[in-house]
Amino acid sequence: MSAHARRARILVVANRLPVRRVGKGRRAGWESSAGGLVTAMQPVLRQHGGAWIGWSGAAGPAPRAFIHEGVRVRPVALSRSEVERFYHGMSNETFWPLYHDAIRAPEFHRRWWDAYRRVNMRFARAAAAAARRGDLVWVHDYHLQLVPGMLRALRPDLRIGFFLHIPFPPEELFEWLPWRTQVLEGLLGASVVGFQTEAGGRNFSRLAREYTTAEGTDTELEFQGRRVRVGAFPISIDFDWFNAWARQPRVQADAAEIRRRVGEDRRILLAVDRLDYTKGLGLRLQAFEELLAERRLDAEECVLIQIAVPTREGVADYARMRRQIDEAVGRINGQFSEPGRVAVHYFRRNLTREELVAYYRAADVMLVTPLRDGMNLVAKEFVACRPDNSGVLVLSQFAGAARQMRRALLVNPYDIDQVKRTILQALRLRRSDARTRMTILRIMVRRHDVHHWASEFLEALRR
């Protein structure tokens, strides 16, 4: 690696900024957003210089560029129409379901695609204007898949990387996309194209060879005279933060209070998800309900705590799913609860990271059973919050995390009977076996934390 590459500034280009607006009027300001990407990239940007380019989350003119906690922030504007068509439409009603195995049917509308192209070009131009010669530009996620190619055309002097945080679909699904070639050529504008799993990389490389002029292997392509590296870079969490917070006396006291409130003699099953159709909440509740109905579990001895973080509240599909989950929880509690012994504690709201750690500490079994997930960081957060090596993780084989976390109890979330058997196995697992599994899981997450992820990708981009 050259000395110039080591000194190059880094520009992050993501749909959202690393900050959110708080307060009103004269008291209005910005505070850092929570999340793994912000945690990983802020110290890197402070060290190397550069900027973060993204959208504030509000429609209308973009605020002026500013510096927040040592990081230069460059907002990009989206109109109300673009928010509707680029963000809610193309990004979340086309790419999101298509890339998650078409669990819900994706919609394809030319006006959405036109807005998607227009917004991607705006991001590319913002990056081109902010970058100096030789800078590293790291573009993130499905909202901005055309940016690498557009930016390459504007600034061929830059080293451009792209990372997809969600799954990349197999050929038979991606082929549905009317604009499949344009998306592939957009991604091929990057020097490094990163995915959560090797399977995602293979899907992309095969499609690129099929629908563009790219040639090569699953891990290295030649496109328009350039080498494009394709690889798996599994994202992770800030292990040290979760591990340290879980050891705090106040967190241990909060965890003990949670156990006291639900019944200290009861085993706690915990699930933490965004309220999204990809997360498998309905099937998980069905498995728990059947176990209670079959008297293989008893609400006197066991409780499910389901934390569901609201998302896309105005979308009809999500509103319908929310009603179905509400009805399922009501039905289970109506049939199986006793005074002072609710079968399912259901919280539909946002909790802070600090609050979640207390729940992670209180739980006996963590249920992470998405129908499809790029990675799923909840599984890794739970493991990081078990410094005594207690607890059992039940994990969907269709989460990217399953490729790394093989000492979890892996399940097919569509197989209700297997999920039921695995829940019982988790509750009955010998303590020594549970401790061995958790110890190995914690070693893996500690070694491959979010800082390792960021440095590994940037190292590849510098080559």
Q: How would you explain this protein's 3D organization?
A:
The protein has helices spanning 3-7, 36-48, 80-99, 110-130, 147-154, 171-174, 180-187, 198-211, 239-246, 249-262, 281-293, 316-336, 353-362, 377-384, 416-428, 431-447, 450-462, and strands at residues 10-16, 19-22, 29-32, 50-55, 66-68, 71-76, 136-140, 159-163, 192-195, 215-216, 220-223, 226-232, 267-274, 302-309, 344-348, 365-368, 392-396, 409-411. It folds into 2 domains: 3-236 and 451-462, Rossmann fold, CATH 3.40.50; 239-447, 3-Layer(aba) Sandwich (Rossmann fold), CATH 3.40.50. The strands form 3 sheets. It has a 10-stranded mixed beta sheet with strand order 5-6-4-1-7-8-9-12-11-10, sandwiched between helices. The chain contains 17 helices and 18 strands. The longest helix is centred in the first third of the chain and has 21 residues, at 110-130. It is an alpha/beta fold and 463 residues long. A hairpin with a 2-residue loop joins strand 5 (66-68) and strand 6. The termini are close together. The model has no long low-confidence stretch (mean pLDDT 94).
Residue stretches low in confidence (pLDDT < 50, at least 5 long) are none
Helix share, percent: 40-55%
Rg is 23 Å
CATH hierarchy class name of the largest domain = Alpha Beta
Count up the helices. 17
Q: Please name the fourth-level CATH homologous superfamily of the largest domain.
A: Glycogen Phosphorylase B
Proportion of strand residues = 15-25%
CATH-defined fold name of the largest domain: Rossmann fold
Oligomer: single chain
- Count of discrete structural domains: 2
CATH hierarchy: architecture of the largest domain: 3-Layer(aba) Sandwich
DSSP summary, beta strand count:
18
* Biggest beta sheet attributes: 10 strands, mixed
Tertiary shape: globular
> Which structural category fits the helices and strands?
alpha/beta
**Spatial order of the strands forming the largest sheet:** 5-6-4-1-7-8-9-12-11-10
Round the mean pLDDT to the nearest integer and report it.
94
Report how far the terminal alpha carbons are from each other.
6 Å
